[in-house]
Specification:
Layout: E1 2-8, E2 13-23, E3 26-40, E4 56-61, E5 74-83, E6 89-99, E7 105-110, E8 117-119, E9 132-139, E10 147-153, H1 159-164, E11 174-175, E12 180-181, E13 183-184, E14 188-189, E15 191-192, E16 195-196, E17 206-210, E18 215-219, E19 228-229, E20 251-252, E21 262-265, E22 271-274, E23 282-290, E24 300-301, E25 305-312, E26 322-326, E27 333-342, E28 345-352, E29 358-359, E30 364-372
Parallel strand pairs: 19-20
Antiparallel strand pairs: 1-2, 2-3, 3-4, 4-7, 5-6, 5-9, 6-8, 9-10, 11-13, 12-14, 15-16, 17-18, 21-22, 23-30, 24-29, 25-28, 26-30, 27-28
Length: 373
């Protein structure tokens, strides 16, 4: 009795379960003994120049009538690939002596070296034409008195072997179709996704480009830098997704209309025109002044007293920060405060901590006026 146990399309794996019994030196059918044959057909991803391996794996387990393994025993197998039916013509057959393991397990690579004898060539099996069956015959005593364990249909053909025969029944030849043209084993690729490929040979650094009709060789021109003119005041992004260098690139950025504005990134990392105030930037004016008289018309600061000086600073606006620092070492009095008191005018308050009056005439200072744009 033959029973299909499992089928895995990805690995093209088969397991054929046959019930047999060994009594004495003879092999009989019996429903109480399990003789498991496992044919594993593994399909490899092969490139166009690779040679498909002309073999596939076969694994079995042999047990006695009491279900104990036929362990560490030399047995003989005759394995045949039949065409069309379980009684069809043998396209390939081989005999092998194998030794079972302690569990009664044995492995064979059908079509590989090491067969005691073989009939026909493994490569002559027409996988792409008609049904194929695997017939198994066993001599548990290791001789040549084979008893048939039956034949079971191979429900899926080993893909690499079928591909090597190009899907035809004529061995290593066959007519290609689809995006291929010519015959196997060396068809030509004439289309991609059904679109014809130009017969013009490409040159170095060209690519295949679809021109609306066919795939043609083309030079990559889009990788060269090109001038960019923005349509709005803000630059959203300049992205080079290809990874190529953007050479000869000029950027003409549309004006924002704000005088003295600058390009800055905002909190969202967007580059845009901003005023100095929005960008939190300021400008400053540095000038040198020479003190002459106090506002009361004198040059002397009274002992232990303060005095007020008003100086002219062009561009000063009330509220602008202003700083004064003396150029030389001044120890007789101190500047205690400075501020913009009127347009173009800075007031400076000085203090004399000496017991006698001191003169401030002719002393030079640096004035730094900060203005926000």
């Amino acid at each position: 009795m033959l029973t299909l146990i499992s089928y895995d399309l990805l690995k093209l794996r088969f397991k054929i379960e046959i019930l047999l019994i060994i009594k004495g030196n003879k092999l009989y059918m019996n429903t109480k003994l399990l003789f498991l044959l496992s044919v594993v057909l593994t399909c490899l991803m092969l490139d166009a120049s690779a040679q498909a391996p002309q073999q596939f794996n076969y694994q079995g387990v042999l047990r006695n009538a009491n279900s104990t393994p036929v362990a560490s025993t030399v047995i003989t197998l005759r394995l045949s690939v039949l065409d069309g039916s379980d009684a069809g013509t043998s396209q390939y057959s081989e005999t092998r002596k194998v030794t079972t393991s302690s569990l009664g397990l044995y492995n064979v690579a059908i079509g590989s070296a090491g067969a005691a004898s073989s009939t026909n060539n493994f490569s002559s099996i027409t996988w792409g034409s008609g049904l194929k069956y695997l017939k198994v015959e066993v001599d548990p005593a290791g001789g040549s008195s084979f008893v048939s364990a039956g034949a079971s249909q191979l429900l899926s053909v080993p893909y690499a072997l079928y591909a090597a025969n190009a899907g035809s029944g004529t061995g290593s030849t066959g007519t290609a179709s689809g995006d291929l043209s010519g015959t196997y084993p060396a068809p030509a690729v004439v289309k991609i996704q059904g679109v014809a490929i130009s017969s013009v040979a490409p040159i170095a650094n060209q690519i295949l480009k679809f021109d609306g009709v066919s795939w043609v060789p083309a030079t990559i021109t889009g990788l060269l830098g090109q001038d960019v003119t923005t349509a709005t005041p803000d630059i959203i992004s300049l992205t080079n997704a290809t990874g190529a260098a953007l050479t000869n690139l000029n950027v003409d950025i549309k004006s924002s209309g704000l005088a003295n504005s600058i390009l800055m990134t905002d909190a969202n990392k967007v580059v845009k025109w901003q005023s100095a105030t929005d960008a939190k930037l300021v400008s400053g004016f540095l000038s040198t002044i020479t003190l002459t008289t106090l506002v009361n018309g004198t040059t002397l600061i009274p002992a232990n007293d303060v005095g007020l000086i008003k100086i002219s600073v062009s561009g000063a606006v009330v509220g602008d920060p202003v700083f004064l620092t003396n150029i030389g070492d001044e120890t007789e009095y101190s500047v205690v405060a400075s501020w913009v008191s009127a347009v173009n005018e800075v007031s400076v308050r000085v203090a004399n901590y000496q017991p006698t009056p001191v003169s401030m005439a002719g002393i030079q200072y640096k004035v730094f006026l900060i203005q926000a744009e």
